[in-house]
Amino acid sequence: MATSSTASTATASTLAPPILSSPLKAPKDLRVAIVTTDWYDHIVDPLSDACRKELESNGVSAANIDLIKVPGAYELPFAASRLIETRRDSLHAVIVIGCMVKGVTMAYEFVSEAVAMGIMKLNVKTNTPVVLGLLTCPSEEEATRCAKKTGTCNGKACNHGTEWAHSAVELAHIRQKLAAKKCGDNCTCTNCTCDPCTCNKSS
Q1: Residue 168: how many CB atoms within 10 A of its CB?
Q2: How far is CA 73 from the centre of its chain?
Q3: Is residue 111 pLDDT above 50, yes or no?
Q4: Residues forming beta bridges with residue 134, ordered by sequence position
Q5: Are the beta carbons of 97 and 52 closer than 8 angstroms?
Q6: pTM of the predicted model, to two decimals?
Q7: What's this protein's family per the entry (predicted)?
Q8: Which of 27, 166, 188, 194 is deepest in the core (most CB within 10 A)?
Q9: Domain 32-178: which CATH class?
Q10: Contact 37, 70 (CB under 8 A)
Q11: Maximum C-alpha span of the chain
């Protein structure tokens, strides 16, 4: 009986919602773009709203959060890529949010893999982190549950949008820290990639 009780406890612990560590405050003047899909907007919009509110609560100015809409999940990498290309000097992180529900065809598998690969390539090839917020669920009911406040973050109910905001802020910190290491410990520029750092010098 003791063995059975131990196994049950381990299973319950494994299935419990994750509790995130205290989120970092956003670097000064952090600018983030949130790209969302029109498809399943009743699922995606609550996630986007939670993401935006969490960014603001962690120090990101509302004026520094750009909201972009695309038709569906397949277009998410395109929008993220164009944002990075055209705003590379001012954009510090991108969060893409969408939802895919498994149907009777293979489109679900093909598109979800293509989106994940597209975002992965942007993370590898560019200097701007992209957070993948794509729900891939077996049913619309399951996706709706995922979009509701079912998790726990710092003792408060939250959804995945909150987690994605935390990831964006943390990645922005990592990006800034790595740039500072390259340019010198006194560098305070979020986008600094120079060596040595000249961002703080008057022109």
Answers
A1: 28
A2: 15
A3: yes
A4: 98
A5: no
A6: 0.74
A7: Belongs to the DMRL synthase family.
A8: 166
A9: alpha beta
A10: yes
A11: 75
Calculate mean pLDDT across residues 101-110: 85
Domain map (residue ranges) of the chain: 32-178
Q: Give the closest residue to 43 by CA, choosing from 165, 166, 118, 134.
A: 134
pLDDT at 146: 75
**What DSSP character marks residue 201?**
S
Q: How far is CA 54 from CA 31, 47, 111, 166, 184, in A?
A: 14, 11, 29, 8, 31
DSSP output for 174-185? HHHHHHHHHH-T
Q: How far apart, in whole angstroms, are the C-alpha atoms of residue 109 and residue 120?
A: 16
**Residue range 133-147: mean pLDDT, rounded:** 85
CA dist 75 and 19 (Å) reads 32
Identify the residue whose tokens are 């569906």: 72
Residue 137 one-letter amino acid: C
**Locate tokens 């003792």: which residue?**
155
Check residue 98 and report its DSSP letter: E
- Do strands 156-158 and 151-153 pair parallel, antiparallel, or not at all (unpaired)? antiparallel
Name the pLDDT band for 202 (thresholds 50, 70, 90): very low
The helix or strand, by DSSP H or E, that contains position 156, with its residue range, turns out to be strand 156-158
- Measure the N-to-C terminal CA separation of the chain; round to a whole number of Å: 75
Letter string b/e over residues 81-105, b meaning 16 or more CB atoms within 10 A of that residue's CB: bebbeeeeeebbbbbbbbbbbbeee
Residue 52: what are its φ and ψ, rounded to 5°?
A: -65, -45
Ramachandran area for residue 184 (φ above 0: left; ψ -120 to 50: alpha; else beta): left
